[in-house]
Design a protein that fits this description.
Arc Repressor Mutant, subunit A, Beta-Lactamase, 2 domains, five-stranded antiparallel beta sheet
């Protein structure tokens, strides 16, 4: 949002802009950083943060230099997650997949134009993927975003991409918009998504789309693991497991 538009926004709009910024990596910012990233002046940022802190929506870090989301924000997020009526049906299937593959499994949905992780099951291992429920995921890297945008209205996707700039965060991160559209097309043709070294080094993922009763893709279930010499064979095996459970999960989608 441009500065002139921000300055004309209501106090509530500005507070929401600040909260949205705190939902982005690294999930904690100084007042100066928030002012720069949101294009809201420091005096207003100071007033907003004081109000949000008073209401439990933000808290300060231990050194009192940065702000991050507070317990009330977490409470609201938990209520949002619990409002999905298929939780009790789908989570046990994800748990079954994790036990069968001995790998981390997650489930994300598209809500409006946001890709949101709802459930994450991470296996106990020395290196962690650190995928967390409630996080918004990018549309150009990783299984969730690529899969769900591949099946989204493509005219709308092209409009969304016009206002996007992508950062090269890893070796295979897709930053070119035309290349990304081709990747979406490939996903639709093959019926599954693969991510290798797109989000962070040695991370491999494979996912499948989940349709609702109307045949619309509304979710993605994915398996993530760390790259080893046999990763190609393992990727193929993980894909087969996901495809085996794909229809079972779809039965519970509204």
């Amino acid at each position: 949002m441009k500065e002139k538009n921000v300055e004309k926004s209501s106090s509530i709009d500005k507070a929401l802009i600040v909260l949205r910024q705190l939902c982005k990596e690294p999930y904690k910012f100084t007042m100066t950083e928030l002012a720069k990233k949101t294009e809201i002046n420091r005096t207003t940022i100071y007033r907003i943060l004081n109000t949000l802190e008073d209401k439990g929506l933000v808290i300060k870090t231990k050194d009192n230099k940065q702000y991050k989301l507070g317990p009330f924000a977490y409470e609201m997020g938990s209520i949002y997650l619990n409002n999905f009526r298929f939780k009790d049906s789908i989570y046990p299937i994800l748990d079954k997949i994790s036990h069968e593959t001995k790998e981390s499994v997650g489930f994300a949905v598209i809500d409006g134009e946001k890709v949101i992780s709802l459930y994450e099951i991470e296996i106990d291992q020395p290196m962690k993927m650190n995928y967390r429920p409630g996080i918004n995921y990018p549309i150009n890297r990783g299984c969730y975003g690529k899969c769900l945008m591949a099946y989204y209205d493509q005219d709308r996707v092209k409009e969304i991409l016009k206002n996007k700039e992508f950062e090269q965060v890893c070796e295979n991160t897709i930053t070119d918009k035309e290349e990304l559209l081709k990747e979406y097309e490939k996903i639709r043709q093959q019926g599954y998504v693969v991510s290798i070294n797109e989000t962070f080094p040695f991370a491999v993922g494979v996912g499948v789309p989940i349709r609702n009763s109307s045949g619309e893709v509304k979710a993605c279930v994915a398996i993530a693991f760390f790259k080893r010499e046999d990763y190609k064979e393992k990727l193929e095996n993980m894909k087969k497991v996901l495809l085996k459970y794909q229809d079972e999960i779809s039965k519970y989608m509204i």
